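request received
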Amino acid sequence: MTLSKDTSMLGRGVKRKWSCLEELEAEGLPDAAEEKQQSASDESAESGDEAGLLPPRSDMSHLQQRQLVLGLCLEKLQRYQAGMELSLRRSVLLINTLRQIQEEMRSDGVGTCTSDVLLNGVHPDSCLLRDDFREEDMPVTCPGCAEGDAESLSPPLSPEFPSPEAAGDQQKPPPAATVSTFSDAVNAMGYLSDLALDDIFEDIDTSMYETSDLPSAWSAGSLWPVSVSLWPDEDVKMRPGSHSSAGSLQSCLTDLNELDHIMEILVKS
Amino acid sequence: MLSPIQVLCSDITTLSLEPEPFASYTEADIISTVEFNHTGELLATGDKGGRVVIFQREPESKTEPFSQGEYNVYSTFQSHEPEFDYLKSLEIEEKINKIRWLPQQNAAHFLLSTNDKTIKLWKVSERDKRPEGYNLKDEEGRIKDISTVTSLQVPVLKPMDLMVEVSPRRVFANAHTYHVNSISVNSDYETYMSADDLRINLWHLDITDRSFNIVDIKPANMEDLTEVITAAEFHPHHCNLFVYSSSKGTLRLCDMREAALCDKHSKLFEEPEDPSARSFFSEIISSVSDVKFSHSGRYLLTRDYLTAKVWDLNMESKPLETYQVHDYLRSKLCSLYENDCIFDKFECAWNGSDSVIMTGAYNNFFRMFDRNTKRDVTLEASRESSKPRAVLKPRRVCAAGGKRRKDDISVDSLDFTKKILHTAWHPNENIIAIAATNNLYIFQDKLNSEMH
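response:
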C-alpha cells in the first residue's frame, strides 16, 4: 500500500513540518505576519472599528487557523468531486465544521456581506447531502431549482469563479485559489445529482456570464467574508466599485432569476 | 491484569503473503474487523478484500505445555465480493466492516459478516468422517459395473482428515441505502440489528426478504442533516434494549417495547461541552467511533478520538470515567485534520470481568486501563517487539519538549499510518487480539490467565 505524502506526513523518527499554523506561530514569519496584520486591521476597519489596532496574537492565530481549516474543508469536500468517495459521516462532519466557520465569520461582523442573496447562495451542504445520496423518492433537481424559493444565486454564480483570470488579475493568487476552490466546491456539489443535467446547466451558466464584467465585481469581495479579509487593498478599492456597478448587478439579478425559472421548467419537463 | 503481557502465538502474520518484516502487502490484506466467539475458542478476522479468516485455539495438552492455547488458522473463505451499483455509479466495497458470532447451539458455528450493504450468515461446520462402502460407486466415485456386484453392504462412516466447510446460509440484502457500520445479535438469539449512517433495521435470522426499521434519523430535508449514526449494539441481557451512538458524541438508549419506531430515545447520554475547550475540531473529536456494553450490561464503553469513556446506564448527564488515550494529540489536531487522521475510527473492548478496558492508538500502540487500580499501560504490536514468548515492554509517549526517558517516543516521531483500529478481548481469559494493518497479534497474560 503506497501512501501519499499527504497521509504520511509524520514519519517514524523524522521530524516533519506540522501545519503552517504551528510553523508560523513558532517562527513568526514576517510575510505571514504582515499579511495577517493587514487582514486583521482591514477586518476591524470593515466592522467600523476605528481603533485600527492589531488584534492580540491569539486572535491572529485564530483567524489564521480558521482560514486554514476552511481551506482544508473545501479541499476535502472537493476531493469528493474528483471521484474519491467520502463517507456520509465525514461529509457531515466537514460540512458542520464549514457551517461553524461560516457562522463565526458572519458574526465577526464583516460589513459588506449583508446581502441575503449572497449569503443564502452559499449552501454547499445542501447540494452535497441532498443530491448525492439520492433515494428512490428523491426528485432529481439541480441545486438552483431546489433552492429556487430561497432565490439562491449560488449555482449560476459559481461557474464564473473558476475563471481565475478574471478574478486573478486583481487578486493575489492564493486568495483567488481559495475563493475559486470554494466556488468550485459549491458548483461541483451540483454534479452529485445528475451529471447530464448539470452539464446542461453548466453550459447555460457559462454562456450567460462570459462577457459580463460581473465576475470582477462579484469576486472583488462582496460575495463572501473570505475575500474581504484576504484582499484588504482590493476591498477598499472595490467597495465604491461595487456600489457603482449596482445597476449592472440589478440587471444580472433579473437575469439570474430568469435563469432559475428556465431551469425549473427544464427540470420539470 | 496489567502484569506483563506475553506474546502468545508464533504464526502471527497469516494474511500477508511474504514473511519478511518490510515486505509490502496489498491493500486487500488490511484487517478491518476482529471478533472472538462466545467461548473464545474461535477468532474471526475480516479484511478489506472481503475475506474472513477464522482461527481456532489449540486445546491445551499436557505433553507439550508450551504449544497450548495457540491460535491456528481454522478456515478461510471469501465472504463478500465487490459489487457495482449501476444506479448511482458507485462501487460497493467488499471490505468486511463487522463480524459477529451467534451463540453456539449445535456442532456448527454461525457468524454474521457484513460489508457496506449486505449482511451474510455463514455456517462453519466440521467434517471428519465420510461414508465408505457404497454399492454402486467405487472408492473413487466411478460407477461400478452392476454385474460385478455380488453382495450388498451398508456404507459405514470412516474417519477422515478434518475438513472445515463454510457455506452461506442467509443473505440479507437491499435493506440499507447508506453504509452499514454495525451489526449486533440480540440476546434472544433470534433477531439481530444492522445499523447504517441514518437507519437501524431489525432482522429475524431466518427471514431475509423483510426487515423492520426501528430507527430512522434521516431528516425530511437532507439539508438539515447534521448528525449520523456511528455504532449500535443490543443490550447483552435485555432483548428489548439497544444503544446507538452519533457523530455528535451522544448515546441513545432505546426500548423496543415503547414504540415500533424507536426515534424517541429512552435515555440520552451526553456530556456537556466544555466551552473553554471549544475549537473547530470539537465536534469531530467528539464523534463516537465505537460503543460496547459491558458484559454485565450495567455500563457502556465509548471511544471518541482522544478518549475512552465508561458510562453508567443510570446516569445520563456525564460519563462515570474518562480515560485519556492520547491526549498529547490535542495540540496537533489541526495537522491531524489536514492528513485526515482525525477521522480515524478506533474500536474499544472490555475484558471478561469488565475491570479493564482496551483501545488502540497510533504507532501500533494500544492502551489498557484498569478501572479499579486506575493504572494504565501502553504496549506496542509490532514484529520487532513481538518475538514469540517474549514479554511486551510498556511504552511511553512523551510530549514534545518534555522530559524524555530512554526508549520513550516523542510525539513528533509517531507513525500515524500505523493505527490500531480493531482490537478484541477473549470473553473469559486474558487473551487479546490486535489487528495492526495487515497483521494479527495475539497476546496472552501468562501469569494471570484467569480473569479477575
